[in-house]
Amino acid sequence: MFVLVLLAALAAVTLYGAWQEAQTRSWRWGCLSRLALRRCSWGRWPMSWGHQHPAEAWLGQQADEVVGGPEGYMVLGQWDPPACTLLGSGGQGTVYALDLPSAPPLALKVISLREELAGEQARREVAMMHQLRGVEGVPRVYVHVLCPPMVIMSRHSGVSFEAFLTSASSPCDVLWVCASLCRVLDRIHAAGLVHNDIKEDNILVDRVEGVTVVDFGTMRQAGTRLLDPPEDSAAAHRRLELNKELHPFLCAEILLGHPCHPAMDVYAVGQLLLMAFTALQGLLSGPQEQHLHLLQVLQQTQDTLPLRPTMATLIELLESVMNDLPTCGRPAGHSTH
Ligand SMILES: Nc1ncnc2c1ncn2[C@@H]1O[C@H](COP(=O)(O)OP(=O)(O)OP(=O)(O)O)[C@@H](O)[C@H]1O
Ligand SMILES: [Mg+2]
């Protein structure tokens, strides 16, 4: 009896270990995606891709399932990915490193929302990334898989903004990364879009690649709404209270259903820059009045709209503090953006 219990306990521990391994390190895709495929309903579209897309070559045999797509990315009806290593996950999806022969480093985002929402979410993320194609600091979309809803995009190196701050070695590096982040956002805004989900783990910081912004699930065209306005003031109050702790980077205007505006990203990035400024305290040399002014402007990012600084003001200020620091050039090894 004792031996049986011991064996059962050993089997349970082994199974749990294997499950953990699958969750955190690698995942054999075959069975999962085949299950998902059976649930998906997509008709077989005629192949309408006029010319060969580079992704067709990487995807090999699967390319006969190409169903079209505008110039720039390819749409596949379905695809059964090979084994992938986990890169990260969030509330809307799981992202894997995908390595295919002769392809650049790729990331595969599998949308993990409810079936009826996942397709629309993938379509939206692809559309946003496509609209931002060529923008430095934003992944390039290569393939939109309809079933199960997935996106294949360029893979970028880096640690989260928070991890970067913890390990940053010099004030120059921190200021440079902050300014680079604001510049990427400024370029996104110049394309008429608002990210709406700027937070530590949606930013990848790498010494060579610089700053990459990821996660376009809540991105919207400026002037359109992310959320519907609450029904009445009680509902508005409830929504604000609920999200205060849960989503501290979301400003009140987003939650109250105002049309999207770049100032919404200024609020979120302001929180990250304030975190960075706190990490820098005591390390900054140079004119103290200038640092105080920077702090003041960073605090204004948390004000209501008319008082909030613009992204351009933040960039200008960060650059002027960097210029006045002795020996503050661009950190060695960084790319240009
Ligand atoms: N193109 C990429 N290259 C490398 N890593 C990436 C890429 N895209 C996403 N990641 C990693 O995967 C993680 C999860 O991706 P993403 O933020 O898109 O998922 P999500 O479910 O939409 O997240 P959220 O909970 O913020 O909505 C990111 O935090 C990042 O670490
Ligand atoms: Mg995310």
Notes on the structure:
With 337 residues, this protein is α+β, with helices and mostly antiparallel strands. The protein has two domains: 122 residues, Phosphorylase Kinase, domain 1; 165 residues, Transferase(Phosphotransferase), domain 1. The strands form three sheets. The chain has an eight-stranded mixed beta sheet, sandwiched between helices. A three-stranded antiparallel beta sheet has the order 9-11-12. Strands 10-13 form a two-stranded antiparallel ribbon. It is globular and about 70 Å long. It starts with a helix and ends in a 13-residue tail after the last helix. The site of magnesium ion (MG) has 4 residues, from loops.
What is the CATH level 1 assignment of the largest domain? Mainly Alpha
Distance between the termini: 66 Å
CATH fold title of the largest domain: Transferase(Phosphotransferase), domain 1
Number of domains: 2
Largest sheet: 8 strands, mixed
Largest beta sheet: what is the strand line-up?
1-4-5-6-8-7-3-2
User: What integer is the average pLDDT?
Assistant: 83
Number of strands: 13
Q: Which CATH-level-2 architecture of the largest domain?
A: Orthogonal Bundle
Share of β-strand residues: 15-25%
| Content-based structural category | alpha+beta
What's the helix-strand series?
Answer: HEHHEEEEEHEEEHHEEEEHHHHH
Question: What fraction, in percent, of the residue positions are helical?
Answer: 40-55%
How many individual helices?
11
Gross morphology:
globular
Ligand roster: adenosine-5'-triphosphate, magnesium ion
Q: Look at the structure and name the CATH superfamily of the largest domain.
A: Transferase(Phosphotransferase) domain 1
